[in-house]
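Lab notebook, bench 4. Still working through the backlog of constructs that have no structural model yet. Next entry is a single chain of 339 residues. Request: give me the structure tokens for it.
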Amino acid sequence: MSIFRSESGYSNWKKALWRNGGFKDHCKSEDHRSAVFAWTQQKLVIEKKTSMIESINKERENRVREKQIYIKTIAQVLLLTAVQNMSQRGHRESEGSDNPGNFLVILDAIAQHDSLIEKRMNAHGNAKYTSKNIQNEILETLAEMVQLDIIKEVKQSEIFSIIADETKDLQKKEQMSFVVRCYYNGTINESFLDFVNAEQLDAEGLSRLIIKCLEKHGLEYRSNLVGQGYDGAAVMSGKHTGICTRIQEVAKYAFYVHCKAHCLNLVIVDSVKSVTEAGCFFSLMQKLHNFLSGSYVHTKWHDIQKEMYGGQPREMPSLRDTRWACRFSACRNMLDRLP
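Model written out:
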């Protein structure tokens, strides 16, 4: 117990000044510390009209606000690169790299005009939030926010249609892309909803994939799905076992429409084939694609392009009847690389 709390107190002043007792011992007591804290609080109240607890809370609020502004800036930069179809990361993102990537370069440019961003960028430790994992997490969060808005619109519209197509990505993996179409706020909206890996490419597997995607996003398809649009391939439009027929078995109002863009491509391709010279020309380009796709020739083709032109090598795309644009790409690459 502190001497100031005892009944006897001091009868000898020397005892109050002892090295291991008296006042020095009292300074270490909980009573003294509580009194000093109360005194400090009272001074703050008088001088600044605030308390220590309020000061601590304000400091914490400022730190939280700074982090929110910083994270929001990072998200806006990532959103900019995504909307403009720009790659985020560079080959080397370490300090001193000549080109660390669009994301870090844009963030550095902002930091030159914003002291808060500059302070966070120059901070030590793991609180910069610029790693590739953080970038991916923020992009996934932004994508989920967009998906939620699209799903909300579709649910408010009640009835809707779907457009789906299967294709290969750059890694040669099969993917199914989903688009939803609905009438919202007086206009017809078409919104891309999702990419899903397609492991089975038959009608049964792709039908299950479509239904699973609709159920995943909580869309009532049995009574509200009124349309489905695909290309004219047999697996999609087959009258007896195609995807459109299988979907109609569970969603009886889902009327099938052959994609008009694919129809237009087929008309153009057939029109061009009626011109003998054009037919021979594109037939030769397809044979050139087949030749350059061989394993040894394909590697050599890339090496020669890097040696002669530098930069990213060009591919000679395969010519497909349902995509007239691939002929434009093939002609452009031939002019640029095989003049």
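Notes after review: The chain is about 55% helix and 10% strand. The beta strands are 160-168, 174-184, 187-197, 225-230, 255-258. Flag for follow-up if needed.
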